[in-house]
Amino acid sequence: MTTPSENPVDLDRQGPEAEIAARAEAFRNWGRWGQDDVLGTLNHITPAHRVAAAALVREGRVISLAQSFDTNGPQKGWRRRTNPVHTMTDTGTDAERGNQGFPHGIGGADDVISMPLQCSTQWDGLGHIFDHGNAWNGRRAGDVVTSEGDLVTGIEHAASVIVSRGVLLDVGRHLAGGELADGYAITVADLEATAAAQDVTVGTGDIVLVRTGQLTRARREGWGDYAGGAAPGLSLTTAGWLHRTDIAAIATDTWGFEVRPNEFDVPAFQPLHQVVIPNLGLTIGEMWDLDELGAACAASGRYDFLLSAAPLPITGAVGSPLNPVAIL
C-alpha cells in the first residue's frame, strides 16, 4: 500500500472520500491495544512517562491552559452549542435576610451551571466522531453511543490517565512571529521545523500543544467566527505524523483543531477528525489557551513540561470541559 503524501499540494481537492479513506486505512490502530480497548493512543502514557515528565518541573510555576467558562465565550449556537449559563441558587443577600433556614446565623452561597460539554476548553473523546458508521476500534457507532451516552469509550475512562510530558509547538510564533492567518494549513514540515527551531523533540506518550495564535487575535479583535469559521489548523496530510510519533494526545488554541475551511473544493467537514479519532484512537483538545505558556516557553527556551489535563469523569460523555495545567 502506498503511504499517503504529506504534501498538501498532492491532495485531490475533488476527492475527500478517497483522501480520507487512504489515511484511515494506512494509519488505523484498531486492535493495537486489544479488542476491548477504550483509551486509544492514551495507552502510550505509561508510569515511566509520568515519572520522566515530573522531572521537568524546575520552577514550580503552574500555568492554566483553559479559557473562561462564561457567557462571554465564542459559541453562537451551532448544533446547539451555547456559552455556559451560570446561575446562583443561594446568595449573600439570602444569607443576610436569614431566609435560608440555617441555625445560629450560618449562611451560604450555591450555584449551578448549564453548558454543552464542548463549549470551551475541552477534550474530544473517542466516541465523538465516527467514520462511515464505525467508532474507535472498529465498533459500530450505534453500539457505542446511544441516547444513554457513550456506553463503551465514555470520557470517564480517561479521568486518571492524561498526565504526561507536554510539548508546545508554537507554530504561530515560529512561522509568523505570533499569529497564523485563518485558513493556513499546518504541514508536517511546519511541525518539524518548529520543533527543530525550539530544540525540542516529540515522541511516544507526549501530549502535543500546537499554538496558532488565533485565540490571541480573537481576544484582540473579538470572537467573530472563532467558533466554526475560518481558522489555521493542522492539514489532513499530518495524519501520518500524528500516527508515527506515537503521541498520546494533541490540542490547539482553535475551535476545530484542523484547518478551516478544510482542504477541498467540494463539500467536506473535518476530515482529519474522521481519520484520527475513530481510526487512530487519538484524543483531541480544542480551544486551549496557549498564550501565557507560549510566552513563558519563549522566555525560558524550554518547550516541554509536566502537563495534567484530566477530563471530568462524566459517565458516558463524548467530551469534557477541563482546566489543563502546565507545570514548569
UniProtKB/TrEMBL annotation:
* Signal sequence, start to end: none
TM region(s), chain numbering: none
Q: Where is this region: Disordered?
A: 73-100
Q: Which Pfam families match?
A: Cyclase
Designated name of the protein: Cyclase family protein
Known InterPro entries for this protein?
A: KFase/CYL (IPR007325), KFase_sf (IPR037175)
Q: Which domain of life is it from?
A: Bacteria
> What Gene3D superfamilies does this protein map onto?
Putative cyclase
